[in-house]
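Q: For a teaching session next week I want to show students how multiple molecules come together into a single three-dimensional assembly. I've collected the sequence lines for a complex. Could you give me the predicted structure tokens for the whole thing so I can convert them for display?
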Amino acid sequence: MNIENIKSQFPIFSKKINGKPLVYLDSSNSSQKPMCVINRLNDFYKNEFSNIGRSIHSLAINATNKFEETRISVKNFINASSREEIIFTKNGTEAINLVATTFGQQNIEKGDEIIITELEHHSNYVPWHFLRETRGAIIKFAPINEDGDIIIDRLKELITSKTKIVAVTHLSNVTGTIVPIKKIVEIAHKKNVPVLVDGCQSVPHIKVDVTDLDCDFYAFSAHKVYGPTGVGILYAKKKWLDRLPPYIGGGAMISEVKKDKIIYASLPEKYEAGTMPTAEVITFNESLKFVQSIGKDNLIKHEIEITNYALEKLRQINSIKIIGNPKNKAGVIAFTIKGIHPHDIATILDEDGVAIRAGHHCCQILHQKLNLTATARISIGVYNTKEDIDIFCKAIENCRKIFDLK
Amino acid sequence: MNLKQLYQDIILEHGKNPRNLRKTENFNKKAKGYNPLCGDKVHVYLKLNENKKVEDISFEGSGCAISMASASIMTELVRGRKENEIKDIIEDFLKMIKEKPELSSKNLKDDEKTKLMCFSGVKQYPMRVKCATLSWHTLTSAIADNNEEINTEKFD
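A: Of course. Below is the structure for the complete assembly, covering every listed component.
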């Protein structure tokens, strides 16, 4: 793979930030968009726009077909068994909320337990917290060790006859920990407990095969996979989607409406009420094609190379502490510099055109565990190069100079 | 606006060695402040005498250079002043941070104005404005004595 060629497909990199070339190291937050994706969105609005579903004119038929083509592409991308198992939502967060709400309504009673982990993003905690408030559920946190790996034996011990669901991230957006989902699913399933996986960080950066993982639910977003904002995806085993109640009510999710009775639509429409982000879902197909044109193996290899290079360079800088040292790590590196607050680091780096994230990264539980209020974080995307890392490290040196660190 | 103007020596110096970073003994007013954006927390302790004059002020907390320096310089300015003067200074400072080009409070001496103007650079960094204002909002709450935890999300 010619990486220069990849970067040139992202028009944003021809822009200057504060007069400097953009070094974008915030892909865990959201990825930049390649030209093919931008063009597709523009093209759809320009030449093909129509809502999908009921209308029978040509534009509507085309839009509906294209919308469903994305669904098939998503199904293939994560190796689901049928298109009915792919539900579009507005983001990954909504996909998790969909499960928490509908599963909770049907299966959670006072005193029932939900197991999550200390690595979770707030989007895989707050929706479950709602069930603690409304249904009296108990939330248990599977702990992590010093390296940032979930202690699997401890998670196993937490599962009791009261446990109704395990919800766990596939890839930490702070430590970069790749979580052994297959193992967790095996453990939970032995006790007949379903597993929801937050795959927002994993889908763009590692191989994801939901059939192989055997998880019950898998949630992610399009915008981190070089796609448009406004689209989330929920994969769920058909048996769950058949059994669970609908989430949002309205048009498109019904089959028949009478004064005394409503019959819901079949899958996947049962979970897609109202006008969907039509253009964005259709555009997302282009993002998946983009990733496939590079090849997931090539992408992973490249990102590992850049991540290892960054780790090596960072370790040479005095007073930098890298957060976590997990067994399997993806391209997410959170760090602190002794004597400089992460927000100061981010502001100073921005001046050099280097975009990083600083704060708690929506993981306050994890930061409390680590006894930190904030960390700085870089995250790698397919477009990043070793040169980006060199510029970043130089900017860190500048930062240390401003703060007069030895 | 460049970064040097934001991270001036005085901000860096106060940021590294904040003054009055402790807890006042026998304080009679206090307030907590929280900036959800970065998770920074600050406690402000005040000891007002019967004439509503600040005998001592201190703060506890941790944060970025801008928030620490802002709290530090604020405590230096406030000691020995009367409540109504302080309120006027707070108002003036918050206005300057947001939109006004200069400070105009008659309660501030010129050298004090110069010191506070160091923070004018944060205007260019909207995400950082709350770092500079957290301790000031918290001081307002302490003076009001309404036991309200300040949350910077609630301010512009």
